[in-house]
Fold each of these.
Amino acid sequence: MDSKKEQLLALLQADPFISQQALAEKLGLSRSAIAGHIGALTREGRVLGRAYMLPQRSALLCIGGANIDRKLRLLGPLQMGTSNPAAGQLETPGGVARNVAENLARLGLPTQLICAVGDDAGGRALLAQAAEVGLNTQGCWVAAGETTGSYTAVLDDNGAMLMALAAMPLTEQLTPEFMRKSGALRMQAGLIVLDLNLPAASVAMLLREAQSHGVPIVAVAVSAPKMNRLPEDLRGLQCLILNRGELHALGDPDPAALHQRGVLQVIVTDGAQGVVCSQAGMPAQHLTPQPATAIIDVTGAGDAFAAGVCAGLWQQPQDLLRAARLGLQLAAMTLQTNATVHPDISPAWLETHTQ
């Protein structure tokens, strides 16, 4: 190495959580000298602050919900107001932003996640599983004394969702003040993916930031009740992914109305009917998915679609149809598993489907 500073950077790359005392001992320097070198690396943008986060240029950065998913499959028709017999509970990692991030990481793409989890068994399990699949979680917040969010889905005997309950109070604390702590990560991103579990003020702040700094943003809707988290001014938003019900919740039956508010690309999903892809100033185009084989579970298919779209736009930002086709293929694969994210998704799968 040419200098102690470069040797220090190499040690931080190997262990971002190493203490200054350990660094001093390894390099034969005083702690004050170590602090001085870290300060210089931070000013140069080569270290991003606490835990010595190292920038990954052009990474995909996912921001939003992370929780424990619980799925119950009914053994008969749903009857409200009474107890319903159901099959055993399946528990998996979940959350829209987290699911999208895991899909992207399994595809072999450099992916970071910003979310909030509790300092409990659920939160520790989410972070451990993220590390296993190659997700960078250095920007995540572990909230002391808080409970990790949960999402409970009730499925019919065919695997279709009848209702779902989301308890995600921690995501509400991803406020603009919290977001400012991860500004350096966003400036290094090649594409930012946010879900509308985020507070409205944070969504608006991120879009304003995108207008100033030019990092493209994809927003993924999560439910009709949360569509009010989008600001009226959608400038700074490259792509919005939502379903037909969420579009109607905006009072905009035509994607053209969203283009007038500033978003460049809109994808409207409609289950087996396919998707509508709309780009500002161009006619909308419809894509129909291949006929599905037996569907095991619909949970996670929408997030897989969003991940495929994001992977495609990260590679070729202007080719919306290619991105949507990739999303449909990834969603179709996810319908064939009980897992929220298909365990067989891989870099080889991405290479095969993008040739």
Note: The two ends are 40 Å apart (CA to CA).
Amino acid sequence: MSTNRLPDWILSAPSGGIGGLKADRAYDALRRAILFRLHEPGDQLLEQQLAHGLGCSQGTVREALLRLAEDGLVERRGYRGTVVTETTLAEAVEMVRVRLSIERSVAMTLAQQGLGDGAEEIERILGEMDAAHGVGDLDRSSVLDRAFHAALAQAAGLGLLRPVLHRCALHIHRFTLGGVEVPRDFFQEAGVGAEHRALLDAILSGGGERASAAISAHLAQVLLRWAPSLHDAVGAQAFALPVAAEGLA
């Protein structure tokens, strides 16, 4: 069981939240600890110990734990306390499939109508991705990756699906960040911002089917790079270009 004491690199990492409130910093620190498996599934998180380790009040920790419960990263069990959840392989597979369905629709819509008013926000996120990559901040890169794909959904007029995309991407990242299937520096061969700019260009420069194929290939490559076992469990066919679109590739 976890001791609820977090290492300095978790406590001192830049906040992924939009503000500097203590609850935001506590949430970010605990989220990082869970994603990088410093708090393992089944670990009990004790508010008093966490408050001492984070240098904040129990009320601040409680607020952070409630947000983590909304994400599905912890489960509040009343008098039994708060326990870190587990994302099973079966659940992760279904989240990949849900994400594929939504993101294909988003890509096809953007191929037809463009980014519109969402272009400025997306460019801002890409700039922050470059900065995060420059300092090797994998966690910040993952936060921005989720923000990028959510912003695409918003630009496509599918903003109500952002919470679904966030939940799916967060738990998929639990596999990619918390796993040990590939060396950590393997991901650093390509810039995160550059990779997503290439994806965006592919979505906007072709027709709807090509855009769908581009986002499918992007998600497949991410899993192959970070969590090959999850890619294999989903099945290569799930990422394949539909037969009707093969002639457009």
Note: The beta strands are 44-45, 74-76, 82-84.
Amino acid sequence: MIGAVHGMPARAHSSTRPTSQIAGSATFGEAASDVLAGRILVVEDATELAELIAEHLTQIASDVQISSDGHSALETIRSDPPDLVILDIGLPAMSGLEVCRAVRARGDATPILMLSGRSSELDRIVGLEFGADDYLVKPFSMLELLARVRAILRRAGSQHFTADSAPPPATTTGRLHAAPLAIDASARTVLCRNLPVSLTEKEFDLLHLLAANPGRVYSRAQLLDLVWGTDCEVYEDSVTSHISRLRAKLELDPAQPRIIQTVWGIGYRFGPDAA
């Protein structure tokens, strides 16, 4: 449902779509069949855009609220904290950056996804340094927005993801033989087909996690949590790039990987037929 924020009723969704702000605003229903129980606050002064975002978010969240200015958003965050705030930078009177700074100054760790029409790297860095968890540039794909919302909630350890869904940690000491690899966790060394392989710290951690749990499929969000940690401002694309580098170092044919396999639409696994 789309709730009201401090007396401001949620307006009916307009049939006029602000396509200058949204690129490819297709529905997400096919890709997201489950609805989370969380609350999301959308802080956006462009009414049609706010309602369009809220309309799509109701496909993955049970309660979506809208606020049109920074002051009312802060009041809502303080009195009834949401599970995620989607915050436009260009708000009237009080900017999104000021709202974000005020939230973080209170020690409030509520996840914040910033929206901005500014695409420069400096603007993105400023937003993250003010305490945002992620930054999305307008115009954006609605599918990407929904995917990022899910990823942020997972990384934040949202209560809507149960402990049963969390993957088991890999052992951090001792030796592991997972053909064609021999991994020494204590010495942090790797042999592949009896030849030493030079890995970075995160490449080693990522490989060791997968090899210690052969056949288990990990999503990119889970790999972020387990290898980089929930407090690290790293994005899921980093997992993809690390997987690509590992394949280049380990696979006989990186284009047809047997050691680290892709499970389409889900994530990655250490291949049961890696040998």
Note: The first strand starts at residue 2 and ends at 3.
